[in-house]
Write a structure and sequence with these properties.
The chain is of the alpha/beta class. It contains seven helices and eight strands. It has helices at residues 10-18, 38-48, 64-72, 93-103, 128-134, 152-158, 168-175, and strands at residues 2-3, 26-31, 52-57, 79-81, 109-111, 115-117, 123-127, 148-151. α1 (10-18) runs parallel beside α2 (38-48). The longest helix has 11 residues, at 38-48. It is globular, with a radius of gyration of 16 Å.
Length: 176
């Protein structure tokens, strides 16, 4: 997870990790110099989380893609989920995606759909894939880092994300 001034939403995402039917082995959070209470919320969560929470801090602001690069460079697991600070995961997300990776072991990157909501998590009635199809685009145009599960081997050739790349998710999906 990459964070920057996400205090308004991050607690809900952290709780959604804790409510997973299959807990993560670790949570790596890279903070890009938050000036709000984001880091305090993360530290309080880390004290009680039922899995390891490792927080790394960038020296100064590094930007969106670089912040994710920093987090990804610290992961130790074989299956890596990307998360934005304002996501909230369904309780079965990790379990379903891990199951998919076992059934389809030949892939490096797996994608799940996302339900679109407002700020109070009320459904818009659309998913991200529905939104893309309604715009006349193909599912192959679907790129959302927060919907990715990545195999560790993929990171061996995907990292570091080159300077000048503005979006980590576009980079990772384009080269997969």
């Amino acid at each position: 997870m990459a964070t920057y001034n996400g205090a308004e939403y991050i607690a809900e995402q952290l709780v959604s990790f804790e409510k997973q039917l299959l807990l993560p082995d670790e949570l790596i959070i890279s903070d890009d110099g938050s000036t709000d209470s984001t880091v305090d919320i993360i530290k309080a969560f880390a004290d009680v989380a039922p899995f390891d929470v490792i927080v790394v801090f960038n020296k100064g602001r590094s930007g969106y893609a670089s912040n994710f690069n920093n987090a990804l460079s610290k992961v130790t697991g074989d299956l890596i989920f990307l998360s934005d600070q304002d996501d909230v995961w369904f309780p079965d997300k990790i379990k379903k995606m891990v199951s998919l990776s076992v059934k389809e072991p030949a892939y490096y990157v797996y994608m799940n759909d996302a339900l679109l909501t407002n700020q109070t998590l009320e459904s818009s009635g659309l998913t991200k894939i529905n939104q893309i199809k309604n715009a006349g685009l193909s599912e192959e145009d679907f790129v959302m880092g927060c919907c990715c599960l990545i195999r560790r081997g993929f990171l061996n050739f995907a990292l570091p994300i080159p300077d000048g790349i503005k979006s980590h998710d576009s980079w990772l999906v384009q080269i997969s």
